[in-house]
Amino acid sequence: MNFAEKNYSTFLWAEERKLLSLFSYIYGCDHHSFVCNWYIILSAFALMPNSINPFVNSLSPMLLFFISCFSFILLSNSPLKPLLPWESETRLLSPWFWRELWSFLVSCIRKGRLGIISFLQVPFVFPLKMTISSKVVNAEEEEDVSLLDLPELALECILQRLSPSGLCSMARVCTSLRDRCRSDHLWEKHMKQKWGRVIGPAAYREWQWHIASRKRPSLLKKCNKRGLFRSLFSVCPLSWIRPKLESSGEPSCSLSVDSIKAWYLSLESGKLWFPAQVYNRENGHLGFVMSCYDALLSYDSRTDTFRARYSPQGPQTIEENIPWHRLRAPPIDVPPHVLHVSDCLNDLKPGDHIEIQWRKNKELPYGWWYGIISHLETCNGNENHCCCHNNDMLILEFNQYSPGSQWRRVVINRKNHQEEGNGADGFYGGIRKICNKEEISIWKSFWPTQVLQ
Fold it and tell me: Which residues cross the membrane (predicted)?
């Protein structure tokens, strides 16, 4: 026996001794009795006739070890040997034993003991296949019903009842649900419920401009890439590469930038500044009580409030922590520095609620101020005999100011009304009639606790 064979034999017997200890521990016997059983079986093989002995000698020692182990297992399971309680509990370790045994066999096979494979094919491989196939059948029988197995109408009703965060979570389940949860008709409802009061046509235009600004760099980048590729193809044309290069772009699973979901998430994140109007700007400063000014707003989801930037033409003012009830979408789609063309002047009569544009000077944007139409001085206020609606002159009254204040009353001509005023009293612009009772009640909710001077 050379040096390599001697080392290999030493390794095998060392591994066998480990398994001897393992068997003796699992089946509740001492090590010496187990070894005695092992050597008795070896002696039985050694006393066989010479016609059988060559076959026995060709068997690996490991095979004899397995034979002895299985024989000992059968003896230990016989009813002639009662088991103690702790010995019966050790049978629960059998899965651990088979895992250790399997790892030992793999190590032997890797080291060249391929003769064991033919021995293991029937008792190990075949039962393993049977076990796996039986587990697959049981898994198919016990498989739960998937959400996608529901009827189309039932699945649609479930998705419609999910919150925005629920739709985002559901979209991460699989590709099919991702496409469904991004549908515009699902997010349109959430957009109207949360943002309908503060989003108007101006905010939509801002969103479209935001989309265009996001698409422009990607388009320029794609054009630059294609220009570079075309220059390379002109030098070395490779037609089989061209389709792959030109089709490379944004991944198909990315969210479309012009979807309603993308708009909703941009508003929620506060990244999109959108135009809206703020009641009583600058935290109810006395100079802006009962007014509503245009501003650029950004949402803060942590506090559920808004930030506002006022007056892009003049000195910029920033206000923090604006609650929802102080915001509204612009009722008229007119830029803040443009005069509104009044179309309700001929219909106004005493008692009507109105908003009128006003600005301190012509360099500043307009704000909308709340007032009512009052009776002329020549009218006694009797509704049955009032003729104020037939007069060309209109009396605008702002009752938040004291009767002697210069801001209390303003007279305008309904026939040829344009911007009127001066540097001292400011400039009055277009008039809008308020017909909605809810809108009137919102204005009255901001009424000051004391009369202004």
Answer: 25-48, 55-75
Q: Which residues of 51-79 are buried (b: 16+ CB within 10 A; e: fewer)?
A: eeeeeeeeeeebebbbbbbeebeeebeee
Number of independent structural domains in the chain: 3
Distance between CA 298 and CA 39 in Å, rounded?
86
User: Residue 186 domain-assigned?
Assistant: no
From 103, 122, 139, the end of a domain falls on 139
Residue 46 and residue 127 share a domain: yes
In a domain? residue 226? yes
**pLDDT band at 390, cuts 50/70/90?**
confident
Which residue in this structure is represented by tokens 């479209």?
208
Print the SS3 string covering the chain. CCHHHHHHHHHHHHHHHHHHHHHHHHCCCCHHHHHHHHHHHHHHHHCCCCCCHHHHHHCCHHHHHHHHHHHHHHHHCCCCCCCCHHHHHHHHHHHHHHHHHHHHHHHHHHCCCCHHHHHHHHHHHHHHHHHHHHHHHHHHHCCCCCHHHCCHHHHHHHHHCCCHHHHHHHCCCCHHHHHHHCCHHHHHHHHHHHHCCCCCHHHHHHHHHHHHHHHHHHHHHHHHHHHHHHHHHHHCCCCCCHHHHHHCCCCCCCCCCCCHHHHHHHHHHCCCCEEEEEECHHHHCHHHCCEEEEEEEEEECCCCEEEEEECCCCCCEEEEEECHHHEECCCCCCCCCCCCCCCCHHHCCCCCEEEEEEECCCCCCCEEEEEEEECCCCCCCCCCCCCHHHCCEEEEECCCECCCCCCCEEEEECCCCCCEEECCCEEEEEEEEECCHHHHHHHHHCCCCCCEC
Query: Of the candidates 244, 265, 246, which has an alpha carbon nearest to the alpha carbon of residue 254?
Result: 265
Domain assignment of residue 103, yes or no: yes
Residues 33 and 114 in one domain: yes
Q: How confident is the model at residue 117 (pLDDT cuts 50, 70, 90)?
A: very low
Q: Is 194 part of a structural domain of the chain?
A: no
If asked whether residues 323 and 350 sit together in one domain, one would say no
Sign of CA dihedral 112, 114, 119, 124: positive
Q: Which two tokens stand for residue 91?
A: 């049978």
What letter would DSSP give residue 54? H
The mean pLDDT of 186-198, rounded to a whole number, is 94
* pLDDT-wise least confident of 148-157, 251-260, 369-378: 251-260
351: containing domain = 345-445
pLDDT at residue 167 in the model? 93
